[in-house]
């Protein structure tokens, strides 16, 4: 069963999931996405939600819909790089905000990340 965060619209969560699959190379540029009906079944959502997802992804330039053929991931590398950079920024922003909410100062955040990446024992 697919779990969704109640704090964020489902269609945006589906966009995030597909974007991550594209970034990881699980879905390749030029690949055809499942039909609206198939994606709705896979995602356990209403087809209208998937339609909105695909429309928003098309607006973002991430996919293109070809009449009678389906919806395809863009082959425009500039768009794909921008999507990756934007996703990276979102992840970093959530992390930094979470650390700041804990009262951790910026230089300590940087130190903790460096130690974590080095595999040091200063992980807590």
Protein described:
This protein is mainly alpha-helical and 124 residues long. The chain has 2 domains: 10-75, Orthogonal Bundle (Arc Repressor Mutant, subunit A); 78-119. The protein is 60% helix and 6% strand. It is built from 5 helices and 2 strands. The protein has helices at residues 10-23, 36-43, 47-60, 77-101, 106-118, and strands spanning 63-66, 70-73. Strands 1-2 form a two-stranded antiparallel ribbon. α2 packs across α3 (47-60). The longest helix has 25 residues, at 77-101. The protein is elongated.
What number of domains?
Answer: 2
Amino- and carboxy-terminal Cα gap: 33 Å
The CATH topology of the largest domain is: Arc Repressor Mutant, subunit A
Secondary-structure element pattern, one letter each: HHHEEHH
Number of strands: 2
| Biggest sheet character | 2 strands, antiparallel
List keywords for this structure.
transcription regulation, Arc Repressor Mutant, subunit A, 2 strands, GntR family transcriptional regulator, 5 helices, about 120 residues, 2 domains, WH-like_DNA-bd_sf, elongated, mainly alpha, DNA-binding transcription factor activity, transcription
List the helices and strands and how they pair.
Elements (H helix, E strand, L loop, with lengths): L9 H14 L12 H8 L3 H14 L2 E4 L3 E4 L3 H25 L4 H13 L6
Helix pairs in contact: 1-3, 1-4, 2-3
Quick recap of the structure?
With 124 residues, the chain is mainly alpha-helical.
């Amino acid at each position: 069963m697919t779990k969704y965060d109640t704090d964020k619209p489902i269609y945006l969560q589906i966009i995030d999931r597909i974007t991550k699959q594209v970034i990881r190379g699980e879905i390749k540029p030029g690949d055809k996405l499942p039909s609206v009906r198939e994606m709705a079944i896979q995602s356990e959502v209403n087809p209208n939600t998937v339609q909105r997802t695909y429309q928003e992804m098309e607006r973002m330039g991430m996919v293109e819909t070809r009449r009678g053929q389906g919806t395809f991931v863009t082959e425009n590398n500039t768009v794909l790089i921008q999507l990756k950079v934007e996703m990276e920024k979102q992840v970093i922003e959530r992390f930094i905000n979470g650390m700041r909410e804990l009262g951790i100062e910026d230089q300590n955040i940087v130190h903790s990340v460096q130690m974590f990446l080095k595999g040091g024992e200063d992980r807590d």
